[in-house]
Amino acid sequence: MSTDLARRFPQNPLLCPGDVRPSRPDWQVVCLLNPGAFRWNGRIGLIVRVAERPPQQPGFISLPTLTENGEARVLVFRRDDPKLDASDPRVLCYDGVHYLTTLSHLRLFASTDGTNFAPAGGDLFLWGHGAAETFGIEDCRVARIGDTFELTYTAVSPNGVAVGRRSTTDWKNFRERGLIFPPHNKDCALFEEQIGGMYYALHRPSSPEIGGNFIWLARSPDLQHWGSHVCLARTQPGGWDSARIGAGAAPIKTSRGWLVVYHGADAANRYCLGALLLALDDPARVLARTREPIMQPSADYEKNGFFGQVIFTNGQILDGDTLTIYYGAADTVICGATFSVNEILAQCRE
Amino acid sequence: MSTDLARRFPQNPLLCPGDVRPSRPDWQVVCLLNPGAFRWNGRIGLIVRVAERPPQQPGFISLPTLTENGEARVLVFRRDDPKLDASDPRVLCYDGVHYLTTLSHLRLFASTDGTNFAPAGGDLFLWGHGAAETFGIEDCRVARIGDTFELTYTAVSPNGVAVGRRSTTDWKNFRERGLIFPPHNKDCALFEEQIGGMYYALHRPSSPEIGGNFIWLARSPDLQHWGSHVCLARTQPGGWDSARIGAGAAPIKTSRGWLVVYHGADAANRYCLGALLLALDDPARVLARTREPIMQPSADYEKNGFFGQVIFTNGQILDGDTLTIYYGAADTVICGATFSVNEILAQCRE
């Protein structure tokens, strides 16, 4: 039984690596990934992760990083070095130390119809800054809280993978607020309104031993300082979401509860989407969860690419019952699909 | 060159597993570990981690856990089960899932002279509560902030290893405040006064990939919600603190800066003590660090035990230039040693 509730855009993929000019002439855009999405001034904005690498020479792997001052620095490894493990196209391990094979920054695109996106805001829109972002910034979620857009994203450095925060009201000036969740953490989705006078966030800590890759909930008086952490949802042994789960964009307020679209991956790193339903007055209480994925890799552009069998979302636009999910497909291209919120809710079981 | 600055108490060990009555008649106290220390009503209190296990039958391993309601529940594994990895005496792995081999709670001891400690406050002083503590509570630090004692401790459950917080003013009534740092995190030491109107904490997140076991600094308006995380100190490749480092008790205010005693371990899990010096007005700025350990396992009770070659501290008492460090030795017994603060400062190099 197929439970795929997605109506994919016939225009997919909406954006491809070739559509994007590299940030420096000799670098190559390898992948576009995992866009945040938002409405602003009558348009739909996507803030896309652009993953680049420097030119590769035969027999060597060249890795891009940043200095703490934000300047590019390339590391070179011999492919035949016995200390090198390059079996994962995303992460390289040398002598027990891990590096990313690409360096990501964020770039802005805008559309009036939600399917045709044009570059906006320049080629180097948001770039890693400081010691916590020397391996780049990734997978930006956008929450609108009052007049402010709150950006929460993955900040990567040799110190670890953590959650950074930047704020803007005009998409030109950004206030950098540092790390709001320490390593190892990703997939931070802010609720767009307060509940009982407090802000809430979903986040996804990971553990080297005891625990897993689960979705947690935290609480804050001010969006910057977070505590009272509780584990909300765990991976499901043997299921499509057995290895890791993480929230998508901001939870959607429905009459039945907060609807959270999340990604789940199995041990083979196949990424699908599912959903959770949380109590309106107490988001620590899980009311229901989808048993089967609401969307799974089936289109060619989802099955094949830099890292195939991946559907990953951190951006969505709601219009009545219609939820447009923007997603990274196969860690390579940007796609879109629409869902009925009520159809997703109908799949959430207690 | 020995750089051991410790003057060990001749009375060591001060407390042994046999000094402590198990929490239920058929259980065995396996280890006493890692006491927090504090002054109160003219006495010195130690809040000791007591690690217990149920009776063991030949051919089986019995593991103690708690239900979410705080009731004991024993899990039993066959020793010859091929899915079992019992190579680490502290952590068992079955079919890829990790369990602790012992269940820890916290027990209170008091002394008028700092060396002779008697039980205080009952056999079951502080016990794990709720879903975040079903594998027990460990390694409690005590910070005195105003009239309140703030307890920060390791909370362990299948959801992960995190930092819990409880507060008391009378050591009888405790306010449970849940988790203040999500997994994987330990070794949380609160500063005992505000700096620039904010509270600060040292903590030790760990990463499954990219990053390590480093000491981080966080900031809070209220001790419960934490943010603006920065990595303060990393492990030193090839050194005595190459594999993991973590803060001891609350930083000590000196004229030269905040003095932090920390533990460091190498790849062979040999735990020593070192020190960091942080700027008084900006604890994110590391001024100096000891190159060699200020204390390393040398006494028989430090080299041999449940897990040998371990000196681990999270409790200390300051009296002028004399710093009494209470520590867990070989993960088995509680010991004490005195240091000169000025001698430690003299070992801190830029």
Kindly describe this structure.
The structure is a homodimer of 350-residue chains. Chain A has 2 helices and 27 strands. Chain A is globular and about 55 Å long. The mean pLDDT of chain A is 96. In chain A, strands 19, 20, 21, 22, 23 and 27 form a 6-stranded antiparallel sheet that branches. Chain A has a 4-stranded antiparallel sheet with strand order 1-26-25-24. In chain A, a hairpin with a 5-residue loop joins strand 6 and strand 7 (91-94). The first copy, chain A, has one domain: 5 Propeller (Tachylectin-2, Chain A), CATH 2.115.10. The first copy, chain A, has 350 residues and is mainly beta. Helices cover 3% and strands 51% of the residues of chain A. At the A-B interface, strand 8, strand 13, strand 14, strand 17 and strand 18 of A face strand 8, strand 13, strand 14, strand 17 and strand 18 of B.
Would you kindly provide a brief summary of this structure?
Chain A is mainly β. The first copy, chain A, has 2 helices and 27 strands. Chain A has a single domain (15-349), classed as Tachylectin-2, Chain A (5 Propeller).
